[in-house]
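Shall we go through a protein fold together, starting from nothing but its sequence? Label the sequence line and the structure token line clearly, so we can match residues to local backbone shapes. Would you write everything just below, so we can both look at the same thing?
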Amino acid sequence: MNGLVSQALAEFKAGGRVGDWQDLAFFKDGSAEAVAAKVDAMVATGAQVLPGPAQIFNALRLTPLDTVKVVILGQDPYPTPGDAHGLAFSYRGNRRLPASLRTILAEMADDLELPMPRAGDLSDWARQGVLLLNTALTVEAGQAGAHLKFGWSALVDQAVAAVSDRQSAVVFLLWGGPARQRATLVDRTRHLVIESGHPSPLNRLRDFRGTRPFSRANDWLEARGLKPIDWRLE
């Protein structure tokens, strides 16, 4: 019997439509099933995997390929139960906002002259076409980075390449080394790439704040006749 992650994968694939994420090779050649099997094997040993199975593919489900306007790449989900829900950097916990997200939202507030949000759920961004995709879609509770080598990264590479190939005008916000490595997958003749350091407080260069990625992204989208992203969070 398949584990819960394999079942969630099967449901995600069954809910796809022609031309959407489910057409990626990752979901066609057995790669996705192999990764899901690894995650289910960890669950079978008693490990708690986050987020819950129903939320693992939220980034792809909330932002179909043909709706993508902006791409933001993260690393892996928050390793504290209840915090992550399948969107990079997005947070649903009840404590203080995670440090990197706090930095992102502070930059957004300063850049757009908006109040600093008190909550960190970025679902509204995703529904407007902001693909919030992590390099790994799962993690073990209390063990950040535990699934980074499980094979999820192939999905990220293929997703970035597909957005570059199939969409006409997208802003790629690449923050930090792993995300910036994907810049080579983007056709810069059609898309805008904005690179900077990571918003993490561990980034000693502090080269994220002041880069104004949100206004720059919206200015570029509007210049091409596209509706800008409403970055405000209620």
